[in-house]
Design a protein that fits this description.
The protein has twelve helices and 14 strands. The termini are far apart. β7, α6 and β8 form a beta-alpha-beta unit. It has two domains: about 240 residues, P-loop containing nucleotide triphosphate hydrolases (Rossmann fold, 3-Layer(aba) Sandwich), CATH 3.40.50; about 90 residues, ACT domain (Alpha-Beta Plaits), CATH 3.30.70. The radius of gyration is 24 Å and the shape is elongated. It is of the alpha/beta class. The strands form three sheets. A six-stranded mixed beta sheet has the order 6-7-8-3-9-10, with helices on both faces.
């Protein structure tokens, strides 16, 4: 649905060139929810603005639904944008217009009749839970309700693609969950392809099918969300994963870590359980079978892409051969990574 091919964008800042995007190649499958994550200044917002050509790339191709947007004239581009909806962090609602009128705005600008507008807007009020707020003004709405209006407005022209630029970063956690649930419903019910730009890993693990990481304008990693959480390949992706599932050990625990084993030291391992393995007593079985003791240093269970994942950090104590046997048993059933040693 969306293909970015060798996309580059350079800005001139204070007499020098700043490469915001550096040869980005990325494909967003039709009907998917695709997340692009990165730290501030990574190039995320520039990338999403290139998808609908609010920013024209210096080189490369932007193909949406089979059309190369970089080759279109201004008039052709305006027509294509009807198929690309966009929502922003700060809602961008008109304070002088009601909820209904804000949602109707793109249809009015496109010359739709009042009957066509009503036929389009009423179902969107229902979909976004705004039916009772139809005649309210933005000043009378909560942040979550304002974002729902912005989402409904983006859907008014029945786009095939919905772009979300940090759409939840101005919202509290509970409201964020409700907005993410709405986006998931929209994706499922309307079959709309969703591209989300975010710096929040909770957004990725909650609704995204695939994720890409940007760093200094370059795409450094891309994968399906489950594989990304199970096996991050770069240091930055590991940092993002740890921030989302609280994998970083407490300071007093980490201060005892050694990178290499010494005589009498004990391994500290990170164990990842997926799906049915989350509810299986594997640690108990290993302890009983091999006579080892497990000191739990950290534990967490998360839902990633609708699937349960358990993350456990333990210190394994016992005879060296028994510890090795325990780790072999665990590796046969779950993912095990040695993160250090303690004495």
């Amino acid at each position: 649905m969306i293909e970015l091919k060798n996309l580059t964008k350079v800005f001139k800042v204070g007499g020098r060139e700043l490469k915001a995007l550096d040869g980005i190649n990325l494909t967003v499958p039709e009907g998917s929810i695709y997340g692009v994550i990165g730290s501030s200044g990574a190039g995320k917002s520039t990338l999403i603005r290139c998808v609908n050509m609010l920013e024209r790339p210096g080189s490369g191709r932007v193909i949406v639904d089979g059309q190369d947007l970089t080759q279109l004239t201004g008039k052709e581009l305006r027509l294509v944008r009807h198929n690309i909806g966009m929502i922003f962090q700060h809602f961008n609602l008109l304070s002088s217009r009601t909820v209904y009128q804000n949602i109707a705005l793109p249809l009015e600008l496109a010359g739709a009749s009042s009957q066509e507008i009503e036929t389009a807007v009423i179902p969107l009020l229902d979909l976004t839970g705004l039916k009772e707020k139809r005649d309210s003004y933005p000043s009378q709405l909560s942040g979550g309700q304002k974002q729902r209006v912005a989402i409904a407005r983006a859907l008014a022209s029945k786009p095939k693609v919905l772009l979300c630029d940090e759409a939840t970063s101005a919202l509290d956690p509970q409201t964020t969950r409700s907005i993410l649930g709405l986006l998931k419903d929209i994706n499922r019910e309307l079959k709309i392809t969703v591209l989300i730009i975010t710096h929040e890993m909770d957004v990725v693990k909650t609704i995204c099918d695939r994720v890409a990481i940007l760093s200094h304008g370059q795409l450094i990693e891309e994968n399906d969300v489950e594989s990304f959480f199970l096996n991050p390949k770069t240091e930055l992706s590991r940092e993002f994963v740890c921030s989302a599932i609280h994998q970083k050990p407490a300071a007093e625990v980490e201060s005892r870590f050694q990178s290499e084993p010494t005589e009498g030291s004990r391994p500290v391992v990170r164990i990842t359980f997926v799906g049915r393995r989350v509810v299986e007593p594997l640690i108990t079985r290993a302890a009983r079978q091999f006579g080892t003791d497990f000191v739990i240093l950290q534990a967490d269970i998360e839902t990633v892409h609708g699937k349960s994942m358990g993350f456990l950090m333990v210190e394994i104590m016992g005879e060296e051969s028994d510890v090795e046997a325990s780790m072999t048993f665990l590796r046969d059933n779950v993912q095990v990574e040695v993160v250090g040693y303690v004495s």
